[in-house]
Amino acid sequence: MKPSKTSKQWMREHINDPFVQRAQKDGYRSRAAYKLLEIDERDHLLKPGMVVVDLGATPGGWSQVAATKVGRSGKVIGLDLLPLDPLAGVDFIQGDFREESVLKQLEALLENRPVGLVISDMAPNISGIPSADQARAMYLAELAMEFAVAHLTPEGSFLVKVFQGEGFETYLHQLRSSFRKVVSRKPKASRDRSSEVYLLASGKLE
Ligand SMILES: C[S@@+](CC[C@H](N)C(=O)[O-])C[C@H]1O[C@@H](n2cnc3c(N)ncnc32)[C@H](O)[C@@H]1O
């Protein structure tokens, strides 16, 4: 099949993307690694010894960054619909986070260890129907928030990708009623034309 104009354009953009080139040079599995690195540089989220849960972990850029920063005394647990090639310091569950049984697997793996940071870069496959895609994305973000509220330590933080659009303001409001501080971050590796933004919440309210 002949590649479409949009897939050729995507490939050209991908090859010329400076973050893709940097990721290849630095050994990161995705350009997304630089989003977490930039946010962490500013907000100092990742600390040695910490337990981190990475939702939507594949291909593994964020998990790589997290595993390096938490070190051998820490632990990263990644979860994704898609498989993840093994990464040192990362335990992985392949499954759909919307399923109760997958949540239970994650909880079992945690063994009641206090979670210092929940990061969610989950994004659904794009169907091309904007309202449906937005609703699916918001649902994943809501599930991630519920998980963070249930498992974070009082000092823990929650970083989540959301897309501006229908449901965004309501989500922000919910996040603000569960955490003392909520800020938004748009790292340089996040494309300008993308409506994605990262919300960082800390200071869980009882
Ligand atoms: C943008 S990618 C994550 C990139 C990753 N942070 C990195 O640094 O390499 C989004 C991921 O969310 C995952 N995802 C989407 N829906 C999911 C679901 N219901 N449960 C688990 N993972 C999901 C996708 O499979 C995809 O790998």
CATH architecture assignment name:
3-Layer(aba) Sandwich
Average predicted local confidence, pLDDT: 95
Q: Numbering strands along the chain, what is their spatial order in the largest sheet?
A: 3-2-1-4-5-7-6
The number of helical runs is: 7
Radius of gyration: 17 Å
Determine the CATH superfamily.
Answer: Vaccinia Virus protein VP39
Contiguous low-pLDDT stretches (5 residues minimum) are none
Largest β sheet strand count, sense and barrel closure: 7 strands, mixed
Describe this protein's structure:
With 206 residues, the protein is α/β, with parallel strands linked by helices. The protein has one domain: Rossmann fold. The chain is built from 7 helices and 7 strands. It has helices at 5-16, 18-26, 33-43, 61-70, 100-110, 130-151, 168-178; strands spanning 51-55, 75-80, 90-94, 115-120, 152-163, 179-185, 196-204. A 7-stranded mixed beta sheet has the order 3-2-1-4-5-7-6, with helices on both faces. Strand 4, helix 6 (130-151) and strand 5 (152-163) form a beta-alpha-beta unit. Helix 3 (33-43) packs parallel to helix 4 and helix 6 packs parallel to helix 7 (168-178). The longest helix has 22 residues, at 130-151. The chain is globular and about 55 Å long. The structure holds S-adenosylmethionine.
